[in-house]
Automatic annotation (TrEMBL):
Organism lineage: Bacteria, Pseudomonadati, Pseudomonadota, Alphaproteobacteria, Acetobacterales
Top-level taxon of origin: Bacteria
Binding site for uracil: 197, 202-204
Name of the protein described by the UniProt record: Uracil phosphoribosyltransferase
Manner of cofactor binding, per the entry note: Binds 1 Mg(2+) ion per subunit. The magnesium is bound as Mg-PRPP.
Keyword Glycoprotein: no
UniProt gene name: upp
Cofactor(s) annotated in UniProt: Mg(2+)
EC number in record: 2.4.2.9
Amino acid sequence: MTQTISPIVLDHPLVRHKLTYLRDRNTSTADFRRLTRELSLLLAYEATRTLSLVPYKIETPSGAYQGEQLDGKKLCFVSILRAGNGLLDGMLDLIPSARVGHIGLRRDHETLEVSEYYFNMPRDVPGRTCIVLDPMLATGHSASAAITRIKEAGAHKPIFACLLSVPEGIAYLQKHHPDVQIVTCSIDQKLDAHGYIVPGLGDAGDRLFGTR
Ligand code: URA
């Protein structure tokens, strides 16, 4: 049997504080965006914890120093449209040289099945560590479909980063992609009958972009 990788949960007072305001239905669109940006920066910090380093020599003002730098071609963030874009700014604040890919997936509200309407990735994906972004890991169908597509494009062992997740979504993603590391700010209780996370925060895309 293939071994799955346990999710990393950002159990930190700052994260819990910010998540509470994010969940609050009375939080404004501007504050929701700001909190998402701040949380995504913290997610980026945790999601990149296992990146490898190589030695790198520099001169400090007081002499030679054997430092370190990130190995290889570095990172590619992959935003699952449209809510994934809400996580991009914070990630890019921390890692400005990362490349960015986009995947557009539509979810049928009756069947919860997903179909693709957009796919655009940097050409050099095989040499980069891919971090797939979606604020919500709900059924896991979109995350799994997105990861299947980026693996077809050459991504190796991608990482999946989200604000909220549920056990059902984690199990689905682990079943289809046991090699993927999930990084999340919280594992919530469950999904409701419409595939929304409970307690959750509502529709992440609508709250980020002020629609509906
Ligand atoms: N997508 C959302 O935006 N919210 C949920 O609760 C689940 C999926």
